[in-house]
Amino acid sequence: MSRYWSSLVHRLTPYIPGEQPKLSGLVKLNTNENPYPPSPRVVAAIDAELRNAGELLRLYPDPAAERLREAVATRFADFGITREQVFVGNGSDEVLAHAFMALLRHELPILFPDISYSFYPVYCGLHDVAYATVPLDENFAIRIDDYAVPNGGIIFPNPNAPTGCLLPLSAIERLLLMHRQSVVVVDEAYVDFGGESALALVKEHPNLLVVRTLSKAHSLAGLRVGYAVGQSELVEALERVKNSFNSYPLDRLAIAGAVAAIGDQAYFDGTRHAVMRSRAALCDALRGLGFEVLPSFANFVFARHGQRDADALAAALRLRGIIVRHFKLPRIDQHLRITIGTDAQCGLLIDALREILA
Fold it and tell me: Within 10 Å of residue 78's Cβ, how many Cβ atoms?
């Protein structure tokens, strides 16, 4: 600690992202990256920008990223989404950070699950947001009735992370009606791997903000693009915070690549369905080795072995060049979160586990 730090910095407990090892040849199943490359249209769009880099990069990008907002609105036009209802930022993490400051900072504490995205309490500490956690049930599911208390807002991932469990739209709508005076933020980082998006509820519910990312299903974790969709009152609040912090959040290459990714629906559907098929096969194989696997609607699975310590399993896999995520936290310290890789990567994982368990 430094005497030059502000009191805020002393109080913070920063988020710890998944390890990004620099060793080559690893089977990396720890950070929920998509095993497939992004759409070829993304590479072509970025290449086109780079061909004019000498002229374009000296100029600021569009501060409102209108092309990207229009692309998102067009993609979800069936839900009645308009460009004015779309907010964009540097990854969904930045979008979430703005939402905490713009929409969730009130006198009453906000609510989120006790097992959830571990960035949420970090944001609360950074933005001085009071919060209370609500325990998941014994099956790691969210119980809507447990949220029937006064609050300053509600946020949760759907599917949840790190469990992969999904809350149906009917339950989300019940929550929205239960708390008409509170903003409900649904973090849909993984919804494209089998869930149903709450974007279908935006038109009828002014207190709903849906946050999404291009990092997972669009294979663009390295580009850092996220967005939120909500009615104009919520989007205006996000814009006011953004323009008081960073008026140019997305660069020209990110905008071009993101627009191209959203426009290639066929490629998007092909890769996400490939991940879902691999997930089903991996779940079957893990259960065959004695693992308990939670039903997953994400690009990862959450599993535990009744006779083997999770930390020891993770360490044994690492010795064999395979990295998975282990959270040393209450209630889940015997679980491993395993990203869905290619079929070949999943096969190497199963072979290694079979050897370890034998």
Answer: 8
Q: What are phi and psi of 300, to 5 degrees?
A: -150, 165
Q: Residue 19 above 90 pLDDT?
A: no
Reply yes or no on whether the pLDDT at 1 is more than 70: no
Q: Where are the domains of the chain?
A: 7-38+266-357, 40-264
Q: Do 228 and 95 meet the contact criterion of CB atoms below 8 Å apart? A: yes
Which pTM does this prediction carry? Answer: 0.95
Q: Check for a shared fold between 7-38+266-357 and 40-264.
A: no
Amino acid code (one letter) for 270: G
Q: Do 258 and 220 form a contact (C-beta atoms < 8 A)?
A: yes
**Contact assessment for residue 35 and residue 300, using Cβ atoms and an 8 Å cutoff:** no
Q: 296 pLDDT band (50/70/90 cuts)?
A: very high
pLDDT tens digits along 60-93:
999 999 999 999 999 999 999 999 999 999 999 9
Beta-bridge partners for 298: none
Amino acid, single-letter form, for residue 261: A
pLDDT for 331 beyond 70:
yes
Cα–Cα distance between 167 and 138 in angstroms, integer? 15
The DSSP line for 120-167 is HHHHHHHHT--EEEE---TTS---GGGG-S--S-EEEESS-TTT----
Token output for 75: 């993609």
Inform me whether the pLDDT recorded for 24 exceeds 80: no
Contact (Cβ atoms closer than 8 angstroms) between residue 85 and residue 202: yes
**Nearest partner of 158 among 201, 123, 129, judged by Cα:** 201
pLDDT higher than threshold 80 for residue 23: no
* CATH level 3 topology of 7-38+266-357: Aspartate Aminotransferase, domain 1 (3.90.1150)
CB atoms within 10 A of CB 276: 17
What token pair was written down for 99? Answer: 């939402």
Burial label for 260, CB within 10 Å (0-12, 13-18, 19+), is buried
Domain 40-264 coded CATH 3.40.50.1390: no
